[in-house]
Amino acid sequence: MENYTKVTALSQRVQDWEEQIKPHLAAEEGRGVYDIRDYEDRVINAFNQVNQKRTFASIVAGKDNHEVARYMLASLQLANDGTVEISKEGQSLEETVDSMALTLLSEQRAHNRFKAYSTNTGLEAQVQVEGI
After folding, report:
1. Could you give the CA distance from residue 18 to residue 9 in angstroms, rounded to a whole number?
2. b/e burial code for range 32-54 (CB count within 10 A of at least 16 → b)
3. Pair 78, 44: CB distance under 8 Å
4. Inter-axis angle of helices 36-45 and 65-81, nearest 10
């Protein structure tokens, strides 16, 4: 009987969790697929010129939290690619997050730079020959 009670308690916890998560899943499905390149374009298009500096807060002003997270991920990828530079203005963690700034270093996307590099060096042709 004790085993049945444990299974029933576990089943109830699972059911409660499912009821809590279903609205969040439905909301997420309504948001559409996350395309990082689309969001990278949105970040780049927020600038008027190369070397312009803007706060991240000004780029995402008025956006929902889930959109801010998508912009943040795209900004981090752009920084990793060398397309933007991330800087901070505040001293504490809270101040830094609120005053993080991006500087546009290049309008050329990394995947295009790498494609041009591989085409110019013949690397792409070597890969194709080796793959045969």
Report:
1. 14
2. eeeeeeebbebbbebbeeeeeeb
3. yes
4. 80
Tell me the one-letter amino acid at 10.
L
Sheet containing 84-87, strands listed edge to edge, beginning at the edge strand earlier in sequence = 53-55, 101-104, 84-87
Note the Cα 91 to chain centre separation in Å: 25
d(CA 101, CA 123): 36
SS3 of 109, please?
coil
pLDDT in tens, 5-56: 666 888 888 898 999 999 888 887 888 888 999 999 999 999 999 999 999 9
pLDDT digits (tens, 9 = 90+) for 51-63: 999 999 999 999 9
User: How many other C-beta atoms lie within 10 A of the C-beta of residue 81?
Assistant: 17
Question: Per DSSP, what are the bridge partners of residue 85?
Answer: 103
